[in-house]
Amino acid sequence: MKRPFLLCCFVLISLQSFSWGFYAHRLINFQAVFLLPPEMLFFFKHHIAWLREHAVDPDRRRYLMPGEGPRHFIDLDHYIIDSLPRNWKAAVNKYPADSLQAHGIVPWWLQTMQLRLTKAFREKNAASILKLAADIGHYIGDAHVPLHACSNYDGQKTDQRGIHALWESALPELLAEEQWQLFTMRAFYIQHPADFFWERVLESGRAADTVLQVEKRLAAAFPPDARYSFIERNGKLQRQYSVNYVSAYHQQLNEMTERRLKASIQAVAASWYTAWVNAGQPDLIQLMEGITDTVKKRNIQLLGRFWKKD
Ligand SMILES: [Zn+2]
């Protein structure tokens, strides 16, 4: 009897939330920690609860800082992709800055964040490392969401309002914990971060039509009373997608959300790892207080065995 109740809770969605839901953002930062090499894993695992919790800070800031919103998306369909500058300075030379901001800047913002994180590692500033690592984890996650790469971000142009939260909140909240295999390969080094981030954003842009069209077809096959269910919360009746509808959408998308979530986790670990390598692989354990040299050495050896297994 417990499971149906839990499922009902999990598919509750907020129609106001336009980025991976809080659940998925936290999951991405949390899982990324386990892909790191031992020299990083020891420090990151020590702070894993903080990294997980603060994975959603950029979304919280959106309502406080006017410049925050554009960092989470880009309307690729607004541009001719091949002639869109991959470098921010070149983009500003080509388009007015306010127009760029209006259509989102996530692929350029990720490049800035990568440099800032590298600097924080170089300066061995533990607070900055953690803050920037949590933040870039969020932006990388958003860059993997197809509806963050097109202007029809919540199906508002095609009578599909609510699809944003369906894809990125309801799906992972219902299925990730029990059905998805998120464990993935260890962190890899990103040779060219700008190209890498752009490629992930372009992949998202190419997937956006599928996200919309598949839901359109599915909605036509599901009568409204099977598409939605209602739950009472705080004395109010709330509408949510039904478990059957969410599951059917996942299948018809050929498990796209699961693949993008997994790719997000890999990319976050790769970004953290690359920043650390480019900063000269600073000793992060020095930044941890109250841990003896013997404990540090033993942990590194243990984690090293795990890292080399693969
Ligand atoms: Zn976001």
Structure explained in plain terms:
The longest helix has 29 residues. With 310 residues, this protein is mainly alpha-helical. The protein has one domain: Orthogonal Bundle (P1 Nuclease), CATH 1.10.575.10. The chain is built from 15 helices and 2 strands. The N terminus is likely disordered. It binds zinc ion. Zinc ion binds next to helix 5 and helix 9.
Helical/strand content category: mainly alpha
Bound molecules: zinc ion
As for the number of domains, it is 1
Tally of separate helices: 15
Give the helix proportion (percent range): 55-70%
Poorly predicted regions: 1-17
Radius of gyration: 20 Å
- The CATH superfamily bears the name P1 Nuclease
Write the H/E string, N to C.
HHHHHHHHHHHHEEHHH
Could you please say which CATH topology applies here? P1 Nuclease
In terms of DSSP E residues, the strand content is under 5%
The N- to C-terminal Cα distance equals: 39 Å
Highest CATH level, the class = Mainly Alpha
How are the strands of the largest sheet arranged? 1-2
Strand element count: 2
Describe the largest sheet.
2 strands, antiparallel
- Overall pLDDT score: 89
The CATH architecture term is Orthogonal Bundle
Task: Indicate the overall shape.
Answer: globular
How is this fold's topology laid out?
Layout: H1 2-10, H2 22-33, H3 38-46, H4 48-53, H5 57-61, H6 88-94, H7 97-102, H8 106-122, H9 126-143, H10 163-179, H11 193-221, H12 224-227, E1 228-233, E2 236-241, H13 243-252, H14 256-278, H15 293-309
Antiparallel strand pairs: 1-2
Helix pairs in contact: 2-14, 3-15, 8-9, 8-11, 8-14, 9-14, 10-13
Bound molecules: zinc ion.
Residues 19, 58-59, 72, 138, 142 line the site of zinc ion (ZN).
